[in-house]
Amino acid sequence: MTKQVELESQNPVAVNPSTTDPAQKDPKNAKKEEEGVPFSKLFCCATRQDWILIILGSIASLVNGAAMPLFSLLFGEVADGFGPQNPGDQVVETAGKLSLKLFGVAIGSLVASYFAFACWMISGERQAIQIRKKYFKSLLSQEIAFFDSINPN
How many Cβ atoms sit within 10 Å of the Cβ of residue 119? Predict the structure, then answer.
């Protein structure tokens, strides 16, 4: 009994050797498939407008990220405001002021996160369109024989 038949008898869902990953057969091919895009080429299709959006989106992300430490500081003030040394009227006044501050930070965080997400999404979509255009242009510039060599499956 061959090894393939033994594996099929043990496992009802056997792997067909013709459909295995070609990277497993050829280590040189595996290295080529694992290579990614270097960081220097990541924004190769970004225009000046895209860079402006990226910078604005990054700044908005930093502002949004600063909201959590600011919340911690404001909660510390809440604990101080509710201390036993403060009379009842002062506690109510402090709670009102701090609740407005917390609400302001929450609204600022909402606006900053929306702005960051929008800037990065718009920039990414614009760059993806440029990449697709370049890819389509390179496909159109290929000779006809190139398409005969590609396996349609």
Answer: 21
